[in-house]
Structures are given as structure tokens and as C-alpha cells.
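Input.
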Amino acid sequence: MFKEMHDLFQWAWLIPALPFLSFLLIAFVTKRSKGLSSTVSILAILTALGLAIAIGLGIIQSGAELVEHPVIVSANWLNIWGLKIDIGTVVDPLSGMMLFVVALVASMVQIYSLGYMQGDKGWSRYYAYQSLFAFSMLGMVLATNLLQLFIFWELVGLCSYLLIGFWYFKVSAREAAKKAFITTRVGDFGLLLGILFLYNKFETLDFTALSAALSTNLQNVAVVGTVGYVTVMAFLIFMGPMGKSGQFPLHVWLPDAMEGPTPVSALIHAATMVVAGVYLVAKMYFLFEASPVALQFVAGIGAFTAIFAASIAIAQDDIKRILAYSTLSQLGYMVFALGVGAYSASLFHLMTHAFFKALMFLGAGSVIHALHEKQNIWDMGGLWRKMPITGTTFFIGVLAISGVPPFAGFWSKDEILAGAFQNGHPIIYAVGLFTAFLTAFYMSRLFFVAFMGPEKPQNHPHESPLSMTIPLVILACFSAIGGLAALPEHNFSFFIHFGEFEPEAMNWGLAGISVVAGLLGIGFAYYIYVKEAIKAESIAARFPIVYRILNNKYYIDEVYLWLIHHIMDGLGKVLYFIDIYIVDGIINGIALLTRGSAKVLRRTGTGQLQTYAMVFFFAVVVIFMAFAFGEGQLSSLNPLAMLGGVK
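Output.
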């Protein structure tokens, strides 16, 4: 069976190639035709999804053999001065899962955009960017080495800049795009340093070769400082995921990215760009596993980000920003799961989160579309009756993220919490459990206020067109039953078996505790916002300091602005003074001395023969006198002796 699938896996390069071809066609051929542009883009991504599904089914049929022997198709790309880099594709359970998730979400977003972006003047440009983004993300997933991955990693960053700032005529969109681009570049600088360190140490960037070389060096006790060097490299590599996956303190770009069109928010914040960092840590897990210090750091950052972002979400009023901070919190879950050794659980949650978070972002877009761009949940109310498909599918997403069985989030989130507890991390387990309570609370708060609250007479909501509701229904189905892939009897190695990490049996005791935490969060939100119908103003009045801190996101952005204006700008002024008055002063002084010397010396070049003869004569006299002084004879000489007389 494995040999039969091998030929299929070799065609994996077509999956990113198709969106890239559609990008070229839209950019150079169909850009003046809205219908052709969207048709070309959607057909390309749907074909890519079909190929991804076929490869996924092939991976399931291949079983454990593909884990031990991934299918790699590569060709030499660079071979200069000892640097040999190949470019190609790798098919294994991890890349297969990511191909399916990215292609599914990208295709749903593009179909959904037919209704949401209707009438937008930048229609063809939008679908060109969508295709380029899909190409970049899918190319990154299939990369066989770190340099190839880094190239596509940066292309993903470029596409996110273009999509977040799509409505460039809005100042807020332009600023959000720049903020996202610059913040993620900070992390990418560390990632690039880590790649250079790895090549310097092991002379290869191929994932398979790196894993083997690292294992060999760690076992060789004669290699001095290897473990310390590995820790440094792991920290540097992790800086990239900190930026791309919005881990504290490089999280500040992600909430502002809401300035882009809502389908873009679903694409970036659900299963694509933001999980690229989680995917990289999983891909390089052999490096992190070799450094317990690095793993502890990863777990700590992830756990802090999870509860930090969840606490902010409970005090936000913008529907998209609530979902953005929810994404940050869930990314923290995935990261700390990797840190505590719950490898399969982390990647399983990556998949289920893609389903329900894409669903809720697109549901939010449906609401915004129906309410003519209103985004404050307190301006909404009674939407479930007017928008039954959007309301029902959104509620499924809320149940999934809250960890209510049998929805998808229950299986993956509980595996993460069980992994933290069973692997000896009780504090991180407690943080994760409390975060689960907060998640259920703020997501239920959003749903109860926006969909079940009293209707606003000024609103006239209506259900969205089929192009928008069909993707909602499809994603709702995955959110409802996608977690069942974790059941052992399904033998879905494609989803739950990654490398040497196999999921443990479900711990129903721990699962019951987390379900209770989620139900308490939902019940608490129901009591406050439905039964008591308490408004945000009342809560702010009761807890003014806490509410102000949470509503202003712990003033992290203000801290960054203060550091920029007072520290970085102040340092810039000092460096400006040094550059202008010291560096330029020295250079200008040398130039002035040279110019002055040249001004004097140029007078000796008169072009007159008499002058040169006189100079020559005096030069001979000077040379004679110098020799005379050098021999110590000048004091004993007198005119008579020089004429041949006696003393």
C-alpha cells in the first residue's frame, strides 16, 4: 500500500503551485474581470483541497510506515562554496494534516468572500492576495529544510501585510499592517540568527539531517558546550514563533490586524499564519527536546499568553477583538502543550481550533455584514431569531471552544490539560484549567449579548447569502464532529499520530474537571448577561480599576509607545549627536587638513623650469649637509681644510 501511495505523494508540489498559478493569472490576465478573478482563485484552491484530501487519505492508509519513512522529493537549488541547499516537498503525517487544514480554511474563506466582498473595488486584487497567501502557507508546510521554510515564512508575512492593509485608504488599516509587519520582523530576526547558528554548528539545514546531526553531537561527550549551544539555538528559533503566533510580548500586532476584511481575519487568525509558529516548533521539536530549559521557557510563555489574553477578552466589546484575543489564548494553549510534552495534543488542538475559530470569525463577518459594519456587541441583540443559520453555527463554535462534549474542542483541549497534569506540570495545568473557565465565560458573554440580548429597533438584520452561510455550515460540521477523530477505534493516525509521539488514553477524570470548568463559565455568563441582564457600564462601575486595566489590555501598547518615544528616540538623539558632531567632525577635520595641505603643496607645481632648477640646487645642498651632519664631520671642518690647507 505504501508503494502505491508513493506516486501520489510525489505530486504534493501541485498543492501550492495551483494557488501560485492563479495569482499569476489574476495579476496579469484577469485583473479587469471580477468574475474571472474569483473563479480562477476558487477553482485553484478547491483543486488544491482535493489533492490535500487525497494525500491525507493516502497517509492514513500508509500508517506508521510513513512516520518512519516520509516521502521527500527534492532537487539541488544552491551549491556554492560548500553551501548545498535542496528545494522540494516532504509528505508525512504533520505536513499532511497542515495541508488539509490550510486548504480547507482558505477555500471556505474564498467562497465566503463572494458574498462579503461583493461590490468592493479591489475585488481582483483581493483574490490575487488570497491566492498568493495560500501559495506561501502551503509552500511553507511542504518545505524540506529551514532555508526553504524561511523564504515561505517571509512570504506569509508579506501577504499578511497586504491583506491586513487591504483597505489602504483607511489610516487605521495602514497602521495595523505596518505594526504587524514590524512586530513579526523582530521575531524573524531571531529566527534568522537561529538558522545561521544551526548551519554554523551542523553544516546542514535539512530537517532530517539536522535531527540526525543533533542526536550524534549530543551523544558525543567530547563536544564541549553542545547542550548550551542547543539552548541558545532553540531560544533564537522560538523568537520566530513568538512573533508569528502572537506570544507575549510580541502579541500586540494580532488584535490590531482586525482592521483587514473579516474573511482575512478568519484566514490569518484561524488556521494559517498564526499557527505557522506552532508548526515550526513542532517541526523542530527534536531541537527543543534536546534542551529542557528551552522547553520550560516555551511552556511558561505559552501558559502566560493563554491566561493573559483570556483575561483581556472578558472586557472587550468589539466582536472581532474578542475573537482575536481568544485566538491569542488558544495559541498559548498549543504552545504550552508543546512545552510540557503534549505534542500530539497540541497539533490536534491546532486542527480543531482551525475549524471552530474560522467558523466564529466568519460568523462575526456575517453579523457585521447584516448590521452594516457595526462591531460593538452592545449594539447588537436578538440576532439568533433574525439570522438562524449564523446564530446556530456560531453557537456550535462557542460550545466547541468551551470544551463541551462531544464538540471538537473538548477532545483536543482536554488532551492538553491531561498532558500538562500527567507530565508533572501542576501549575501550568491549573493555569490552563482557569483559562478554560475564562474562555467559556467570554465566548458565552459574546453569544448571549449579541445573539440572545434584546433586539435593537434601529437594526434590521437579515440572514447572509448562501455563499456566506454554506461555508458556515461546513465548518460547523467539522467543529461538531471533528474531534471524534481522536477516538482510538477510528485509527486516524493522520490526525493524532505525529512521529514518535502517540496520544495516551483519555483520562476521563481530568476531562470531567475541565468540562465542569467550561460549564461553570457558560453558566456564569448566562446568569450575568441573560438572567440579570447586567450591562458593561454596570460592571465597569463595580470594578473600575480592574475593568479599566483589562479594557486597555494592561496598557502594553502604551508601554511600547513610552519605550519608543523616551528610550529609543532618546538613544537616537544621542547617536545623532555622536554621528554629526564626533564622527562627522573627525571626518570633516581630516578632509579639511587634507584640503589645506593640498592648497599649500599645489603652489610647488608652477611649471617653470627655472623654479625647478633652483629647487633641485637647494635639494642637493640640503642632502649634502645632511650627510655631513650624519658623519659627525661638520664641526671639524673649516674653509682652509676644505681647500687643502693645514690646521
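The mean pLDDT is 87.
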